[in-house]
């Protein structure tokens, strides 16, 4: 059984890593043609061009990071209270609320983007970073709400009542009781929201109109133009946050307690 698990793990790793190897090789290759198994010439020139003074990539990297951080922050601000309500309380229409939260994830992104575009056009939010940040809440907010709902489902709210009975004010209860208990869940939700926003293409293109340039937009453009070396560099840059997030959240994803023990009421 132990050997079977090792083999299964190696197969899984190979299946996940194998598709990424060509991208990594393209980013350090010059002229890699069939039937060559490996590039004939190795070079860091694609990386040098990527960060040259006139390159669009540094600006796109900054824009992508700014949008993802802002979107994740807003998603947490809205998702933590919503997750608390869904996780701690039972109320009429709860299933409908959960279904409504899932709808943006189920509906094709192009349909969501086109529908929101008309509204944002009237509000003057198209072709702007603010509009892109707001539209990224559509895919990020459901992740945050459902993660936090699971966290609060295992949260013992009686600890808050005990703190209040001892004279703690509402803000003291928030900072010294609730937040320490849900902090690992908040970290996981925030990092996943960041990653979901980081990788958005259709919503960014639809609302940003090509004026808000992010890494996914450049990646698709370079790949479509046949610039495999630059596409490889952009792909590696796009993968970096995912690898960091995986390393940071590995322990939380094992299922070890995200909050104080308890249950929904």
Structure class: mainly alpha
Indicate the overall shape.
globular
Radius of gyration: 22 Å
- Taking the alpha carbons of the first and last residues, their distance comes to 41 Å
Order of helices and strands: HHHHHHHHHHHHH
In terms of per-residue confidence, which ranges show pLDDT below 50 for 5 or more consecutive residues? 255-265
Strand content: under 5%
Q: Report on the biggest sheet.
A: none
The beta-strand count equals 0
What level of helicity do the residues show?
Answer: over 70%
Instruction: Summarize model confidence as the mean pLDDT.
Output: 83
Count helical runs. 13
Could you characterize what this model shows?
With 265 residues, this protein is mostly helical. Helices cover 72% and strands 0% of the residues. It is built from 13 helices and no strands. The protein has helices at residues 2-17, 21-26, 45-50, 57-88, 94-106, 109-123, 129-135, 137-153, 158-165, 170-198, 202-208, 215-224, 228-253. Helix 4 runs parallel beside helix 8 (137-153), helix 4 crosses helix 10 (170-198) and helix 7 packs antiparallel against helix 11 (202-208). The longest helix is centred in the first third of the chain and has 32 residues, at 57-88. The radius of gyration is 22 Å and the shape is globular. The model is unreliable at 255-265 (pLDDT under 50).
SSE layout and pairing:
Blueprint: H1 2-17, H2 21-26, H3 45-50, H4 57-88, H5 94-106, H6 109-123, H7 129-135, H8 137-153, H9 158-165, H10 170-198, H11 202-208, H12 215-224, H13 228-253
Helix pairs in contact: 4-7, 4-8, 4-10, 5-8, 6-11, 7-11, 8-10, 9-10, 10-13, 12-13
């Amino acid at each position: 059984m132990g050997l079977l698990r090792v083999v299964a793990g190696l197969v899984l790793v190979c299946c996940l890593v194998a598709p990424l190897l060509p991208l990594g090789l393209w980013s350090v290759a010059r002229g890699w043609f069939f039937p060559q198994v490996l590039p004939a010439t190795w070079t860091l020139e694609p990386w040098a061009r990527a960060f040259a003074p006139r390159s669009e990539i540094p600006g796109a990297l900054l824009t992508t990071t700014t949008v993802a951080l802002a979107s994740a922050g807003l998603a947490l601000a809205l998702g933590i209270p919503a997750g608390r309500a869904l996780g701690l309380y039972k109320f009429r229409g709860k299933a409908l609320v959960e279904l409504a939260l899932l709808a943006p994830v189920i509906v094709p992104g192009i349909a969501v983007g086109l529908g929101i575009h008309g509204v944002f056009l009237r509000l003057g939010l198209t072709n702007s970073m603010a509009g892109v940040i707001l539209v990224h809440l559509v895919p990020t907010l459901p992740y945050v709400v459902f993660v936090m709902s699971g966290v609060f489902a295992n949260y013992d709210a009686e600890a808050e009542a005990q703190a209040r009975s001892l004279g703690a004010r509402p803000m003291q209860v928030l900072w010294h009781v609730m937040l320490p208990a849900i902090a690992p869940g908040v970290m996981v939700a925030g990092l996943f929201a960041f990653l979901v926003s980081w990788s958005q293409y259709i919503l960014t293109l639809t609302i940003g109109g090509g004026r808000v340039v992010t890494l996914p937009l450049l990646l698709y453009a370079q790949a479509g133009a046949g610039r495999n070396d630059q596409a490889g560099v952009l792909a590696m840059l796009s993968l970096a946050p995912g690898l960091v997030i995986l390393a940071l959240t590995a322990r939380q994803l094992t299922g070890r307690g995200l909050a104080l023990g308890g249950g929904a009421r």
